Input
Amino acid sequence: MAGNVRVGLMGCGRIAQFFHLSILGSTPGVELTAVAEMDDTLRAQAQAAAPGAKAYSDYKDLLADDNVDAAVVCLPTGMHARAAVDAFEAGKHIYLEKPIGLTLEEAAQVIEAERTSGKSGMIGFNYRFHPLHQQLKSRIQSGEIGNVVAVRSAFCAAKRELPGWKQRRATGGGVLLDLGTHHADLARFLLDDDVVSVSAAVRQMNYEGDFGSMRMQLGSGLVWDGTFSSQASDTDTIEVLGDRGMLRLDRYAGSLERNESKPGAGLVKRGKRALTDAQGLIKRTVSDPGEPSFKGALTAWADALSKSSDMPAPLIDGARSLSVICAAEQSAEQGGASVDLRGLMSSVAGGAPTPAGAA
Output
């Protein structure tokens, strides 16, 4: 695609106001030409933040705008698949915030729409582009902690009043779909392996599915245990245990450190980690420029479009992550029984899953 990528932003809610508007308005090679938002107040705020962009109340009017080459879909989850299909049918490239849809049937519709349109789509797995996750992947691959034995993670959000659509799974709620989908993708991204089976438990504290635990088994036999909640303190940690040490990533503290696999080493490391975490939190609070992964992801998308190159997070990866979540929910309904994922993707991609390292 020659010249600037002319982008339309579909949906101007909380995340778009925090990240997408400013990023799209300041990224070289990107021209934010239109915004669409049905809420009058949010639309006015978006227009104030992007005064050079046309403002629409209906995203379909944005898709009919010839001055838009590509659309960023930042709508409530229940609208993702329909909006993505509409965008492809309108001849637009897309960046689709996760998850790809509510069901694997919706995911299949998006993948088919992309295939027939001849346009490109990227799923918004922004944490792939976080510097800490990229460093973690590199350090795992370097063999720094030896053979990986297990992974455990926690991704939780502080208790708050959720918008109506996030209170029910049928409209896009539930922490497995909202938060767990990120770690389902990171399992594949960090370890270059596919999730082949999953077991899970889900319970309700205030909203439907607002607490969940999920055990993912990868093709190598490695197990990743994750905990997810929208009723706990803000937490996003990943601990990778190897036979020569452990790497611990804390996104909110801005830290990635190694614990040695030697007797007594953990006591010293724990003290240092407490100090490092506190310093990282203070630094983030005082000078944090914002979650860097959104800028990394959107910039990578625009760059891929301008160079007509492969998407660094193709839409099919959104379907792979959703298949993990759907299997986990099925497991929870069956009392935690393990559910095999092999075969689930065939209904989406028309065959076996692509190997993890393939683009």
About this structure: The chain has a mean pLDDT of 90.
